[in-house]
Amino acid sequence: MDILHSVAEMHRFADRVHHSGRTIGFVPTMGFLHEGHVSLMHIARQHADVLVVSIFVNPTQFGPGEDFESYPRDFERDRRMVAAAGADCLYYPDANEMYPDGYQTMVCVRDVTRNLCGLSRPTHFEGVATVVTKLFNAVKPQCAVFGQKDFQQLVVIKRMVKDLNMDIDIIGAPIVREPDGIAMSSRNKYLGPAERQAARCLSRALDAVRARVQAGEHAAQALISLATDIISAEPLGRIDYIRVCDVETLRDVELLENDAVMAVAVFFEKARLIDNAVLHVNGQQS
Ligand code: AMP
């Protein structure tokens, strides 16, 4: 597996792959990898000849007072996991390579960034859209895989790719969970044992909401109240938001008429955790 640090090296690698008639599948990450990340790599492998994974903790998507400095990092462990997943290339640029002196261009996706995480992290998605654009320009992939765990991020990237005519197939991957239901996340490392236990309320609430939809409840407010009751029963958590939105526009809906997503964000002492469930009006919940 090649480990590349500069845009120039990455371009040479990508051009070699393309000249040999092969395609690149790409998985961008911020490292401190877990099985959720690995599942994305397996999916990318199935859709392309060559797998490129990037690790970059992107400063522009963290707001003031957020956890950029303390974000968990373990390059050696990550390198082994990426190699074991069968990647051909690990792209590992540093902040200077991504944002050299004089850098001043940002990518802004408008409507779909306003609700949900955009409410409490107003500059987050501009940082995400910018870094993903830059990574796409460096890696030149034919397809890229993003987790549905970050549902809004997936919607933002799909919108951006469409709006900017990027010739890249964006593939959404299912949420990978711990055996007790908690969505895998690098930030789970921040949880102490009591908080780790308490954090199960997110997936418990989403399960209860899915069951209620299956039983015929279509009013968003009733579903939000149900989830709020379950999550607020955990004194270690503080709800940031619980909302039900259209899966494409991410605008709040009042009644489930088409597929919708319930998205939740909950603060624990050091971690802000997010999770979601897609709610289908007819048929199986996912
Ligand atoms: P991150 O390193 O947290 O920026 O995540 C990199 C990619 O992995 C994003 O596309 C995430 O949505 C995805 N991801 C993170 N956690 C999970 C999970 N539990 N299941 C599936 N995908 C995930």
Question: SS-based structural class?
Answer: alpha/beta
Give the name of the CATH superfamily of the largest domain. Answer: HUPs
**Main sheet summary:** 6 strands, parallel
The hetero compounds bound to this protein are: adenosine monophosphate
Mean pLDDT: 97
Flag low-confidence runs. Answer: none
| CATH class categorisation of the largest domain | Alpha Beta
Spatial strand sequence of the major β-sheet: 1-4-3-2-5-6
Helix content range: 25-40%
Q: Please work out how many helical segments DSSP would assign.
A: 10
Strand percent estimate: 15-25%
- CATH fold group of the largest domain: Rossmann fold
DSSP summary, beta strand count? 9
- Helix and strand element order: EHEHEHEHHHEHEHHHEEE
- State the distance separating the first and last CA atoms: 35 Å
Global morphology: globular
The whole-angstrom Rg is 19 Å
What would you say this structure looks like, in words?
By secondary structure, the protein is α/β, with parallel strands linked by helices. It folds into two domains: about 1-175, HUPs (Rossmann fold); about 185-280, Pantoate--beta-alanine Ligase, Chain: A,domain 2, CATH 3.30.1300.10. It is about 35% helix and about 20% strand. It contains ten helices and nine strands. The chain has helices at about 5-20, 35-45, 75-85, 95-100, 115-120, 125-140, 150-165, 195-200, 200-215, 220-230, and strands at about 1-5, 25-30, 50-55, 90, 145, 170-175, 240-245, 260-265, 270-280. The strands form two sheets. It has a six-stranded parallel sheet, sandwiched between helices. A three-stranded antiparallel sheet has the order 7-8-9, covered by helices on one side. Strand 3 (about 50-55), helix 3 (about 75-85) and strand 4 (about 90) form a beta-alpha-beta unit. Helix 6 crosses helix 7 (about 150-165) and helix 9 (about 200-215) packs antiparallel against helix 10. The longest helix has 16 residues, at about 125-140. The radius of gyration is 19 Å and the shape is globular. The protein starts with a strand and ends in a 7-residue tail after the last strand. The model has no long low-confidence stretch (mean pLDDT about 95). Adenosine monophosphate (AMP) binds near residues 39, 173 and 185.
